[in-house]
């Protein structure tokens, strides 16, 4: 498999504004108001792989995902997607790029309650001058696959949590993206709905050869992927590969890594 995303020496520093009355004090505290969320990340994402990013809360998982997804900009370093250095693109090109190549699934479903399910799903297409026939055809095939056809004319607040996540998945797929990015996509789902969503992502990856990058802190959820990068304090600490292990064996390997890392936190 070839790299589809190349991340090199990626750094992200968030600067928090501090309300210091004294300017002198502000100067002295300048360092304190900064969070180094990512500290020199180097990684490749391979075309067609199912990559999982794990790590404790605050490790920088969402920050990394947002930078890979072009939602956020780096402080230092580079992200190349399909050979394109995204920091060199202007806002319009970035939106176009995001629209054409990426599909996002978030933990918070981000559906708009005053739009119908159907309108929510086709929202990304509104950005593009697509023909009505095309739009209808895509919404038909996707809602059939996800079994949400009967929900299309309803409003999100008439749907269950599991159904709303399917709507969010449909929206992520409506533009047929090459790369699917998911940040804790099962965070608000029960175990049956989580399993269904993961099975669906697995099919997209294995059958349709989509590249999937998913953040989770749950070893069970992570075991659906093929490779785990374990992030801690903005650094990649470990890599766990599935290779030819069964999902159950892989799950135990991930669990082992996560518990060792957690024990280290105790010993600090
Ligand atoms: N917008 C922001 N402004 C300031 N600090 C932030 C912001 N987003 C994240 N951080 C900080 O960066 C670090 C990494 O956050 P995040 O990437 O959200 O971690 P994770 O997703 O692994 O829980 C944390 O210390 C967090 O408090
Ligand atoms: Mg997060």
Keywords:
single chain; 268 residues; alpha/beta; Rossmann fold; six-stranded mixed beta sheet; four-stranded antiparallel beta sheet; 10 strands; 37% helix; 25% strand; binds adenosine-5'-diphosphate; binds magnesium ion
Describe, in plain words, how this protein is organized in 3D.
The protein is α/β, with parallel strands linked by helices and 268 residues long. The chain has a single domain, classed as Rossmann fold (3-Layer(aba) Sandwich), CATH 3.40.50. Helices cover 37% and strands 25% of the residues. The chain is built from 9 helices and 10 strands. The longest helix is centred in the last third of the chain and has 21 residues. It is globular, with a radius of gyration of 20 Å. The model has no long low-confidence stretch (mean pLDDT 90). The chain binds adenosine-5'-diphosphate (ADP) and magnesium ion (MG). Adenosine-5'-diphosphate binds next to strand 2 and helix 2. The site of adenosine-5'-diphosphate (ADP) has 12 residues, from strand 2 and helix 2.
Q: Which of globular, elongated, flat, extended, rod-shaped describes the shape?
A: globular
- Report the helical percentage: 25-40%
Please name the CATH topology: Rossmann fold
Heteromolecules bound: adenosine-5'-diphosphate, magnesium ion
Structural class: alpha/beta
CATH class assignment: Alpha Beta
Order of helices and strands: EHEEHEEHEHHHEHEHEEH
Total of DSSP H or I helical runs spanning 4+ residues: 9
Estimate the mean pLDDT confidence: 90
CATH superfamily: P-loop containing nucleotide triphosphate hydrolases
Distance between the first and last residues' Cα: 39 Å
Radius of gyration: 20 Å
User: What amount of the residues lies in strands?
Assistant: 25-35%
Strand arrangement in the largest pleated sheet: 6-7-8-3-9-10
Number of domains: 1
Report the biggest beta sheet as strand number plus sense, adding barrel if it closes: 6 strands, mixed
Spans of at least 5 consecutive residues whose pLDDT stays below 50 are: none
Number of strands: 10
CATH architecture: 3-Layer(aba) Sandwich
């Amino acid at each position: 498999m070839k790299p589809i995303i190349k991340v090199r020496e990626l750094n992200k520093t968030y600067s928090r504004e501090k309300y210091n009355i004294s300017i002198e004090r502000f100067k002295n505290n300048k360092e304190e108001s900064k969070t180094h969320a990512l500290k020199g990340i180097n990684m490749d994402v391979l075309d067609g792989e199912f990559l999982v990013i794990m790590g404790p809360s605050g490790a920088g998982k969402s920050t990394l995902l947002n930078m890979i997804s072009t939602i956020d900009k780096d402080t230092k370093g580079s992200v190349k997607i399909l050979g394109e250095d995204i920091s060199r693109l202007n806002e319009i090109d970035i939106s176009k790029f995001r629209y054409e190549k990426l599909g996002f699934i978030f933990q918070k479903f981000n559906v708009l309650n005053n739009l119908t399910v159907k309108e929510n799903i086709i929202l990304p297409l509104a950005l593009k001058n697509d023909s009505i026939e095309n739009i209808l055809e895509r919404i038909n095939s996707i809602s059939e696959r996800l079994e949400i056809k009967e929900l299309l004319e309803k409003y999100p607040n008439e749907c269950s949590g599991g159904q709303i996540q399917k709507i969010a998945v449909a929206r992520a797929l409506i533009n047929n993206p090459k790369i699917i990015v998911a940040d804790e996509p099962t965070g608000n789902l029960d175990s049956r709905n989580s399993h269904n969503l993961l099975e669906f992502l697995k099919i997209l990856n294995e059958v349709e050869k989509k590249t999937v990058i998913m953040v989770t802190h749950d070893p069970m959820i992570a075991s659906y992927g093929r490779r785990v990068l374990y992030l801690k304090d903005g650094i990649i600490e470990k890599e766990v590969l599935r290779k030819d292990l069964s999902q159950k064996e892989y799950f135990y390997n991930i669990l082992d890594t996560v518990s060792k890392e957690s024990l280290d936190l105790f010993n600090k």
